[in-house]
Design a protein that fits this description.
Helices cover about 5% and strands about 35% of the residues. The relative contact order is 0.08. The chain is mainly beta and about 550 residues long. It folds into three domains: about 70 residues, no CATH class; about 160 residues, no CATH class; about 180 residues, no CATH class. This is TECT1 protein.
Length: about 550
């Protein structure tokens, strides 16, 4: 059968009439001077105006298209007249609002205060992770919609709840208080980690579904939304935790252990669940695994703390540990890498490993100090640079007259920078390889020391130190600012070696350091501070308001 054409969604008429708006109308039932949109002003008043204090009145500037009221004065007329025009104004921005058809969003309504009588009702309405606020005025042709749904290819998109055969994949989390709520859906590609409190008792532990492994694996996941293809959740690992906190990994991970009472203890209750979802680039889930931490409680226990986590990995790719989501977390490694030819940041190879492939997680590293402080013995020893931690390391280099300049210089460069020093640093802790703008290039500087050391060659420049400065700022909301790296500078300092008598030796120090600088609180050299305006408002600026 032929599908009927779907009608486009159309919103109601605009709720704001710019012809009736007047921001300069402050006096009640009186004409405000030079306020050309004041309805209290007459033609005689307009003839005395010198200018229009508000020449244009618009609604929401974020709209794609809207009406604009233009006010001006015709000073050549006798007497001068006010000119009013109503025009269509187009927003040149790509990101704009098509229509403001949700009237409730245009005004503030007094929220309903929770009381002992309505608390349960409000919790049921707003306690879940999402609730509908869509107005009834968005009417659509349901017949045309159902016909289009039959031919639509479904796929999971970012943030969409992961569907199961009965509802959605649960990831319990605290809502109003610290108690667990099972109404929190797991969003696709949204890495989450939650902790909450669950009320338990030994007598009823076998009847509490949320402490049983079955509760988290008995419902199959839909490979794509609204499909009949299902993916079973397999048990990847089971760890048993004793009452004193000791954990033991079980060999048979496929064994289903249900809560049971044994010697006045309730054993095999779920203390933690970790989901791992494997998906394709087409938005289809192909594998789902769960790891469990099981524990035991005694009669004195009235509640337990449960932890839940979910992570995602694209098929045929290697997972890379994150250092924050999105901003960096203090103490986690700074992520780095380099660009290969043909693609800005290849996903398959992500980033190069540093010295001797010890940096398999694409981290920015620094020279690791050794107990004997011998630079030649410390080659290949690297340690990750942790965000927010200022670090310094070093070693001592014993130079003889027989050493050649060029091999010695290359050896020291490999010692300070590593064999494949990265070119870029991730600005956020969760920056992805394909997001080119989320990577900050490393700026390289070179300086020379004034001091000199004696050697056999007449003149030789060797690197003696690597100093890295990481500038970061607080990004986003003031309530929950995120750490973002904005600049990385690597400075190599060289010194001059001069002739050393045969048979003589000299020891010189080689140092490497990293400093983190917060530039969000005050302006640093090379960064412009926000401009300040030193102006005084007129004494009647807020009249008639106090």
């Amino acid at each position: 059968r032929a599908a009927a054409p779907a009608r486009p969604r159309s919103g109601p008429a605009p709720v704001t009439d710019v012809a009736e708006l007047c921001v300069c109308d402050l006096l009640v039932a009186q004409c405000d001077v030079n306020c050309c949109c004041d309805p209290d002003c007459s033609a005689a008043d307009f003839s005395l105006f010198t200018t229009c204090s508000v020449p244009i009145v618009t609604g929401d500037s974020r709209l794609c298209s809207q009406k604009a009221a233009i006010y001006s004065l015709d000073v050549e007329a006798n007497p001068p007249e006010r000119i009013f025009k109503l025009i269509d104004q187009v927003n040149p921005s790509v990101f704009c609002i098509h229509a403001t058809n949700y009237k409730q969003a245009l005004s503030f309504s007094s929220p309903e205060m929770p009381t002992s009588e309505n608390f349960d009702q409000l919790l049921k309405q707003f306690g879940s992770a999402s609730f509908s606020a869509e107005p009834d005025s968005w009417n659509m042709n349901t017949d045309a919609q159902s016909l289009s749904d039959e031919n639509e290819t479904y796929r999971y998109e970012y943030g969409v709840p992961i569907q199961t055969v009965d509802a959605f994949l649960r990831l319990p989390s605290p809502v109003v208080s610290s108690w667990c709520s099972d109404a929190n859906p797991a969003g696709f590609l949204v890495n989450q980690a939650t902790k909450c409190i669950r009320s338990v008792s030994v007598e009823k532990c076998g009847n509490i579904q949320a402490v049983s492994m079955l509760f988290y694996i008995n419902s199959s996941i839909l490979a794509v939304p609204k499909s009949s293809q299902m993916v079973n959740i397999t048990v990847q690992a089971v760890v048993v935790q004793s009452l004193n906190g000791m954990r033991t990994l079980l060999n048979g991970s496929d064994v289903l252990r249900l809560p049971m009472i044994l010697d006045e203890l309730c054993i095999n209750i779920v203390l933690g669940v970790s989901y791992h979802i494997t998906y394709t680039d087409a938005g289809e889930i192909i594998e789902a695994a769960a790891s469990f931490v099981l524990g035991a409680i005694n009669k004195e226990a009235l509640s337990i703390q449960q932890s839940f986590e979910i992570s995602f990995t694209q098929v045929n790719t290697k997972p890379v540990p994150l250092s924050g989501n999105p901003g960096y977390v203090v103490g986690l490694p700074v992520r780095a890498g380099f660009r290969l030819q043909g693609y800005p940041f290849p996903i398959e190879i992500l980033f190069a490993a540093l010295v001797l492939n010890t940096n398999k997680y694409s981290q920015l590293t620094i020279l690791q100090s050794t107990s004997n402080q011998d630079c030649l013995a410390a080659q290949g020893a690297r340690t990750p640079i942790l965000f927010g931690y200022n670090m310094i390391s070093g070693c001592k280099l014993r130079i003889t007259a027989a050493m050649k300049c060029q091999p010695l210089t290359q050896t020291l460069l490999d010692l300070l920078k590593g064999q494949s020093f990265p070119e870029y640093v991730a600005s956020f802790g969760n920056s992805q390889a394909q997001d080119v703008l989320d990577w900050v290039p490393i700026t390289h500087l070179y300086t020379s020391e004034q001091r000199t050391y004696n050697t056999l060659q007449s003149s030789c420049q060797i690197p003696v130190s690597l100093e890295m400065e990481v500038k970061w700022t607080k990004y986003g909301s003031l309530v929950n600012p995120q750490a973002r790296i904005v600049n990385v500078t690597a400075t190599i300092t060289t010194t001059t070696l001069k002739q050393l008598p045969s048979g003589r030796e000299r020891t010189i120090p080689i140092t490497s350091s990293v400093v983190f600088t917060d530039i969000s609180s005050s302006a640093e050299p090379g960064y412009k501070a926000w401009p300040t305006i030193n102006a005084k408002l007129p004494f009647d600026f807020f009249f008639p308001f106090v």
